[in-house]
Specification:
The complex is a heterodimer of chains A (114) and B (113). Chain A is mainly β and 114 residues long. Chain A is built from no helices and eleven strands. Chain A has strands at 4-7, 10-13, 19-25, 31-37, 43-51, 54-57, 64-66, 76-78, 87-94, 104-105, 109-113. In chain A, strands 2, 4, 5, 6, 9, 10 and 11 form a seven-stranded mixed sheet that branches. Chain A has a four-stranded antiparallel sheet with strand order 1-3-8-7, with no helix packed on it. In chain B, the strands form two sheets. In chain B, strands 2, 4, 5, 9, 10 and 11 form a six-stranded mixed sheet that branches. A five-stranded antiparallel sheet of chain B has the order 1-3-8-7-6, with no helix packed on it. The termini of chain B are far apart. Classes of the chains: A mainly beta (114), B mainly beta (113).
């Protein structure tokens, strides 16, 4: 079955540590996205990528970094520069180009900073 | 500034009634608007999409309307069931060709048996 796999599902980190969240898709989608969700809030866009080796900052990119070396993979690194990293992180993908941009989401990764 | 607003208060309705959720936006010119369902601790799931030149879209018990003059979309669930209880998110892609999909804050729906 095609889909998006995020790992780990739960992650605990000490302050000052960088962590990397994995996102892999086998949908042959060109575009991939990272969103952050805080309790009672909507999704805020961190980074998105339309094609391999290219990505753009979203609305809240500070303290995060991404790479897009393969079409299937779009890992997100939460750096120590991110002031409030505890959140639910969602990865998504969609077809690129002129179209409907319907997003398929992964199950999410919940990061807690201790 | 750009905003996508959904009723932040939970909506409680009786089973069998029609639930109506609202999505208002400002300073956007959306090419289309989407609705997603999100269950607790899970990723959103796509439900319906409506384009700027469409007034209404239906899928089974779901109906979406889109009024670009009022800058508003309404999402209706007819004959609601307890299994419809979830948070519903609207999202839009601004005209301009980029892949940036922006979400509203979501409305939590509770269908009471």
């Amino acid at each position: 079955d095609g889909g998006i796999t995020q790992s780990p599902k739960y992650l605990f980190r000490k302050e000052g540590q960088n962590v990397t969240l994995s996102c892999e898709q086998n949908l042959n989608h060109d575009a991939m996205y990272w969103y952050r969700q805080d309790p009672g809030q909507g999704l805020r866009l961190i980074y998105y990528s339309q094609i391999v080796n290219d990505f753009q900052k979203g609305d809240i990119a500070e303290g995060y970094s991404v790479s897009r070396e393969k079409k299937e993979s779009f890992p997100l690194t939460v750096t120590s520069a991110q002031k409030n990293p505890t959140a639910f992180y969602l990865c998504a993908s969609s077809r690129a180009g002129i179209g409907a941009n319907v997003l398929t989401f992964g199950a999410g990764s919940r990061l807690t900073v201790l | 500034s750009q905003k996508i607003e959904q009723n932040s208060e939970a909506l409680n309705i009786q089973e069998g009634k029609t639930a109506t959720l609202t999505c208002n936006y400002t300073n956007y010119s959306p090419a289309y608007l989407q609705w997603y369902r999100q269950d607790p601790g899970r990723g959103p799931v796509f439900l319906l999409l409506i384009r700027e030149n469409e007034k209404e879209k239906r899928k089974e018990r779901l109906k979406v309307t889109f009024d670009t003059t009022l800058k508003q979309s309404l999402f209706h669930i007819t004959a609601s069931q307890p299994a419809d209880s979830a948070t519903y998110l609207c999202a839009l892609l601004n005209s301009g060709g980029y892949q940036k999909v922006t979400f509203g804050t979501g409305t939590k729906l509770q269908v009471i048996p």
